Amino acid sequence: METYLSQSRSNIEILTRICYSSLIGTAIILCNLSSLFAEGTKELNPSLNDKGFIQIWDITDQPNRKFATYLANADQRLHIKICNPGEKIYMGFRIQNAAPNNTAYFRLKDPSGNVVMGPTLISSANTTGNINTYNEAVAGPKQLVGANGYDGFEYTSTTTGDYYIEFNYHPTNNPTFPATASTYQRTFEFFDITVGNAANKAVDGRLWCKAWDLILGNFTRVFNGRMFIYANDGIVTKVEFNAIQPNGFIVSANSKGCTNTGNSFENRLSRPGNVTFPEYKIFLNDPDINCYPTGIFGKLNSAPTISGCDPNNRCINISVDKEGNVDVILDLDGNPGYNPGTRDRVFSTILKVGNNCIPWDGKDGQGKMVVPGTTFPIQIDYFNGITHLPLYDVENHTKGFIVDLVRPVGPKPMLFWDDSGIPGGTKNLTGCNDPGGCHAWPFTEYTNTSASYGDVKTINTWWYA
Fold first, then answer.
1. What is the pTM of this model?
2. If you average pLDDT over residues 167-175, what whole number do you get?
3. Which of 203, 186, 198, 81 is nearest to 141 (CA)?
4. What does 337-349 look like in DSSP terms, one character per residue?
5. Mean pLDDT of all residues in the chain?
6. Which end of the chain is less congested by CB atoms within 10 angstroms, N or C?
7. What is the DSSP secondary structure assignment for residue 182, as one 8-state letter?
8. Alpha helices in 47-186 (DSSP H)
9. Could you tell me which of 327, 331, 322 has the C-alpha nearest to residue 353?
């Protein structure tokens, strides 16, 4: 919907354009992969032939790849949400590495960081905690599903909050770098971490991390896993990776893109190198609604205005009923939309509930004062559930991502990207919602002057509700 307002504030004629999407009251029906009870391999490998394993200490960047290890920071931890004291955590694993590196240790910590279980040996020689087959992994712990499942490690929680699990090659020693590739790395062929409630039933949507570290083994294999992203405003979207072809890669999501400079148009650009940061919780299933409530869509309370008698100290006034991201574009160059390097000015910020003043010093994008009496459009983009998915070092993606809005109910999100900074890169700033996938990119063999499209680069895709 678009509305237009022509008004005078401090001798400046303002034409304001407010753009946002109308919601479509269409129910979205989601189906589980199966009626089995497991969180882990079942979601990352939808079939026996699919590849997608969690790993610790990736050999290409061991000091920095700390996912789920003894040295992991808060963003790299693998969390298990407990909503009610007495809920049980069941765990099972199988390590893919060859002997003697086919064992590891884990310890479980409570929300305060206290070790409540372990260090415990993970070994195929064990009966408890060992997953023998793919079918056992997707069935879940036999304590919940019976004989078809694996015999899981079991812990009964004593408090609510985010427990987390840590892995290591040794029960107590932390790695010392540099190391040979085979010393520390472990790849989990099968894994499952499932929460059981007081009725002895599995509860999905409890396992999450902000930076999943995954590996396929080589970039000729495909990853068909799915993940659910819980934005900070409670909007849940599902991303299907749809036969993406990386080798080892980290999955994280945030509200900005590759960087956080204060300019959303710069932040969202794909770029060479490993340039990303984790912010949102990422689940393998729809986050348990009893622990992670559904957010709501916000709206503008009134038409925006510009106020202030001092040309050097004005306010762009916007009132909203929900906190959300906003881009305000002063379209001063005569060409529609924001054009970097021109007179256009952009403000990217987060709006609080109620009235907001976005300060404007009266200058254009080139640092010159805007002459009083100038007429120009202002574009305001107010986003809920904005989600960026910047992926590093993904060599090939022939089909593109499939993204759906899970909750609250609304239209299928449009996908956007800007790879103009990548050699041969494409961009789509109008949006794509192809049911077969959006934002595909090719693999190009190495030459003397360039590498492949996604190799050692961060390719960003974004959407919003």
1. 0.87
2. 94
3. 203
4. S--TTSS-EEEEE
5. 89
6. N
7. H
8. 134-139, 142-145, 181-184
9. 322
